[in-house]
Amino acid sequence: DDLSVSLGRMQLRAGNPKAALAAVVDIAPSSDKYLDAMLVTGHAYKALNQLEDAAGAYGILVDCDSPHLQAVGFWSLVDLKTRKLSDHEVEKLKAFVKQHESSPDVRYLADYSMIKVAESEGDYQSAFEFAQKANNIAAQLKAFDPAAFQSFVQDGMTTNWKRCQSHVSEAPIFIVGMHRSGSTLLEQILASHSRIEATDELPYIRRQAADLEREGMIRGFAGKSADDLSDMAREYLAKMKSHQPDFNGFLIDKEPTNFLHIGLIFALFPNAKIINIVRDPLDNAMAVYKQFFAKGNEYSNSLEGIVFYWQGYMTLMNHWLKQYGDRILNVSYANLASSPDSEITRVFEYLNIPLEEATLRFYEQDRPVLTPSAAQVRQPINTKSLGSSQSYEPFLGEFMPKFEQMRSFIPRIFRFD
To answer: What does the pLDDT average to over 9-26?
Structure first.
């Protein structure tokens, strides 16, 4: 059973939810791995957009004897996004929070879950307080390192990435930006095209950049020849294609934090297509502040961290856009939500790929989606999330002017025409 659960998790990471279900289907309720199997099952059904089946699996966790797994179950239910919690589920969640009031390390996932409950009741002050509680604990469990982030930003701006390029002609598509800014939506649109397929939020560019960082970014890159860079590019492509071994078209890497590595990407792939999706800073800030991330995105656990990260993102993107200009396409999430057809047409003109009707009906696609936005991208685009942070503005105090300032810089840095 232990091997079956491990295989199920591996298949999920590889983007094969049906294979993940098959791996754990025979694990019996009497097995000590049954609850782990139910978590795999729930995540697989979520990826397949079978939300009630996912909720059934998560409900088994909610009813188990382990407080930690109960909390995981509650958050997993809430993270289905478009499925509303039942009254019974809400009452169980509230009882769990009250029961574990003095155990924040057990309860913090339930605190994240309570944000949605409080929002549904129109109590945004309580929702904000639950977000504060949850993030304060999360910040202790995984600390944000602003110095390391700032170092990557500085190295990105000071390294001469145009000094040398690989000989590789392939043109992978990179979707970059802040998490929770619409990257999954954009990926779903692109992957609806017959000549384009998604892979995952791939770690491979980040790892190659980390290797250069260990050598000293400027010195490390300066020591690379065109042949070295070509080898790095082919190594990346081999790993990328392993996610879609039978597909011969264009592949997407949807790792948002690749905005840190745009110079390296163009050095490896001179013909790369990079699409940067930009959401309103405050809408994005509250989206990540309310979201539990199992790994990474440590900056999102405090408003200070979010402001710092946004400032670094805009500083670096301003640099890249001055360096590479129209080789990078900026897409406004607000424009995509408000005028999807014209914005989708604009994206495919940039890609130099003929538009297909299926891309305008992307929500009809049944491809697996493994990110928190899985259910949301199965619906037609709407404008509901535009201005979604407005109800939280009264509670932001000293941070509100900082977000207003960042909003004012958006049109100065990014062109959306």
So the answer is: 92
**Is the separation of the CB atoms in 117 and 384 below 8 Å?**
no
Angle between the N-to-C axes of helices 226-241 and 204-215, in degrees from 0 to 180, rounded to the nearest 10: 150
Helix (H, G, I), strand (E, B) or coil at 336: helix
CA distance 354 to 238: 26
Tokens of 298: 């440590």
- Express each pLDDT in 24-79 by its tens digit: 999 999 999 999 999 999 999 998 989 999 999 999 999 999 999 999 999 999 99
Tell me which residue has tokens 């996004």. Answer: 81
Are 374 and 47 contacting, i.e. CB atoms less than 8 angstroms apart? yes
Helix (H) or strand (E) holding 278: strand 273-278
At 237-295, the pLDDT tens digits run 999 999 999 999 999 999 999 999 999 999 999 999 999 999 999 999 999 999 999 88
Query: Do residues 336 and 185 touch, judged by C-beta distance below 8 A?
Result: yes
Q: What is the CB neighbour count within 10 angstroms for residue 157?
A: 15
Q: Is the separation of the CB atoms in 53 and 38 below 8 Å?
A: no
At 40, list the tokens: 């795999």
**Helix locations, 63-123, DSSP H:** 67-78, 87-99, 104-120
CB 343 within 8 A of CB 282: no
Asked if 149 contacts 413 with a C-beta cutoff of 8 angstroms, the reply is: no
Sign of CA dihedral 388, 70, 375, 414: positive
What lies within 8 Å, CB to CB, of 416 at 6+ separation is: 278, 330, 331, 332, 335
Eight-state DSSP code of residue 181: S
pLDDT in tens, 72-114: 999 999 999 888 899 999 999 999 999 998 888 888 999 999 9
With beta carbons less than 8 A apart as the criterion, state whether 407 and 282 touch: yes
C-alpha distances in angstroms, 317 versus 264, 312, 323? 14, 8, 10
**For the chain, how are helix, strand and coil distributed in percent, rounded to 5?**
65, 5, 30
Could you identify the residue written with the tokens 């049944």? 366
Give one word for 387, left, alpha or beta, with left for phi > 0 and alpha for psi -120 to 50: left
- For residue 207 the two structure tokens come to 């790892």
CA distance 295 to 9: 15
Cα dihedral sign, 205-198-416-313: negative
Residue with tokens 């930690």: 68
